[in-house]
Amino acid sequence: MNAPGGDNAPSSTGATVGGNPAQKLWGGRFAEGTDALVEAFTESVSFDRRLWRQDIAGSSAHARMLAKIGVLSADDAAAIVAGLAAIHDQIAAGDFVWQQTLEDVHMNIEAALTARIGDAGKRLHTGRSRNDQIATDLRLYVRDAIDELAAVIDTLAAALLDLAEREADSIMPGFTHLQIAQPVSFGHHLLAWREQILRDRTRLLDTRKRANVLPLGSAALAGTVYPLDRHYVAELLGFEAVSENSLDAVSDRDFAIEFVSACALLMVHLSRWSEELILWSSPMFGFIKLPDRFCTGSSIMPQKKNPDVPELVRGKSGRVIGDLNALLVLMKGQPLAYNRDNQEDKLPLFDAHDTVNACLRVFAAMMPSLNLQRDVCRAAAAKGFSTATDFADYLVRKGLPFRDAHHACGSAVAYAVDKQCDLAELSLEELQRFSKLVEADVFSYITLEASLAARQTYGGTAPSQVRAAIARARQSGSR
Ligand code: ARG
Asked: What is the pLDDT of residues 395-431, one digit of tens each?
């Protein structure tokens, strides 16, 4: 029988790892090595190694600044910067050996640096703490993640714009309460989706402004005795400002929460699209066909072609909402300043980033091959009296107050329901029973095409308006 937790679970038998506490970068005041169980419990290098690029960039800037203010010699700083560059290449090549005994990404890199360049490596951590170091790494990470996601949103938004152009004249039923409401252009529906992710994009970029503030120089929590040139570091790392308060700077994770919050809302949008794609691709609707290469089959039912991609996107939205919740709860009980709880911010942050990235990419790849079944869509729009409002508006044009027109039209609909036909299939005489104002021209108002074309409001569904919206989008360069 395996022990709980499996064969490799660390055990607390009193055994310590490494034996000698002096092996730890912080081991000076310790009389015994770390318990094996505690070492495995507290380590973060298994996941925070992902921050290696940001960590190296931050350390190089710190070293250059220390030389600028005369705390490091020019030779030491040059050795540090070159050593870090070599470690960068080593990690990028997959040749770096990460060690759990060294706890986190910061100490793994620092130890490798010292092994490479000797004493100069030991001088790097002057005037710095892992508390301001991790806060800096994370802000750099969030900044990079936002830039990456904004670019993927651009690709997806561009795909929607092209598809909307192709389908500007395609008619589908617009729904409210999931009941057929009024006919709309399929292109218009796609542009509605696009609006959602363009707002997500602006939310991400707005978050970027607040993330783009340098915490380094706050040291552990109180600032440091060295006359650090924080503005120089900010300039080297592309930060727009330096943090105002050292206690706040090492403890603040608002930027991570904002980022994951923007991710969660974005996922809510993708989840709503997914719900529609799933409904539309069901034979009960039959509005679209998803390309085979984006679907999977059933192991038992040979006829099945399942919309797994949108189903998974809808499912993954729950993960990202959970990530946001994890971060909010992580922070809510923390006193100032840094607490080790913060180590737990990384997995939700990375997970939200990865999940959104993957979902955006798979949708961007799938959208161009969305196969609209135009005839099915149009036929569905012709059902459910979707042009009833147009009949009422026709009567208003002829002088009837809207409330009376609404009533007359309602009676006509009830009559057509009984007769099991559409309004446009009633004869002129039949329609005239509901209002004497009806004339032969009524039939040019209550067709699907007329209904759509009449909705000329700015931002409305008339195909000409849809094309105008597309032209505006292309002209403004807004993706
Ligand atoms: N692994 C830590 C984190 O992710 C780094 C900072 C640790 N600081 C400390 N004093 N133990 O937040």
From this structure: 999 999 999 999 999 999 999 999 998 888 999 999 9
Q: Considering only the top CATH level, what class is 383-471?
A: mainly alpha
CA 114 from chain centre, in angstroms, equals 39
DSSP H or E segment with residue 131: helix 130-166
Residue pair 108/91 in contact by the 8 Å Cβ criterion: no
36-122 to CATH, choices 1.10.275.10, 3.20.20.140, 3.30.70.1140, 1.10.3720.10: 1.10.275.10
Cα 113 to chain centroid distance, Å, stands at 35
Per-residue pLDDT reduced to its tens digit, 348-396: 999 999 999 999 999 999 999 999 999 999 999 998 888 999 999 999 9
**Each residue's pLDDT tens digit, 444-478:** 999 999 999 999 999 999 999 999 999 999 998 75
Atom of ligand 1 nearest to the CA of 343: 4
Q: Which of 407, 397, 400, 391 is nearest to 451 (CA)?
A: 391
Instruction: Kindly report, residue by residue over 186-200, the tens digit of the pLDDT.
Output: 999 999 999 999 999
**Which atom of ligand 1 is found nearest the CA of 103?**
1
For the question of residue 177 being annotated catalytic, the response is yes
Determine the residue of 102, 103, 340, 350 to mutate for testing ligand 1's pocket, defined as the one with the most ligand atoms within 8 A of the Cβ atom.
340
User: What is the homologous superfamily of the domain 130-378 according to CATH?
Assistant: Fumarase/aspartase (Central domain) (1.20.200.10)
Query: Given the CA of residue 104, which atom of ligand 1 is nearest to it?
Result: 1
* 12 has catalytic annotation: no
Are 222 and 196 in contact, with CB atoms under 8 Å apart? no
Catalytically annotated residue among 177, 299, 427, 476: 177
Q: Which residue owns the Cα nearest ligand 1 atom 1? A: 343
